[in-house]
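U., I forgot to send this yesterday:
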Amino acid sequence: MAILGGCSNEQTGFVNDAVCFTIDLGDTGAVATPVWEDGTSFVINGTIMVENNGIVGVGPTASLTVNGTAVAGFTVAPGESRSVTLNGINSIGIVGAGGTGTANVTVSFSLNYQY
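Result:
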């Protein structure tokens, strides 16, 4: 939750916010499930964390896409979590692959921008 009342006399303002939610992720056939899309003209920077709570050896892996492109080497196996900090985030998506059934995947990310 944002902290209100910490105003500044600077001409520019800063926003730092955090979002967290859980999805049931199955094998998406290499198509990203949209998680978030920037609807503003601001340059968004932040950290994205993916926690795959699927059953080890059974559930699908979760891979991250940012701005429509796979983040190299960012695949989260069941029972694992990973994070990455990026600049210029316009969209976030998750791709599920392999495994059987679905995995409970928590996606958390910070949104940091200046206006």
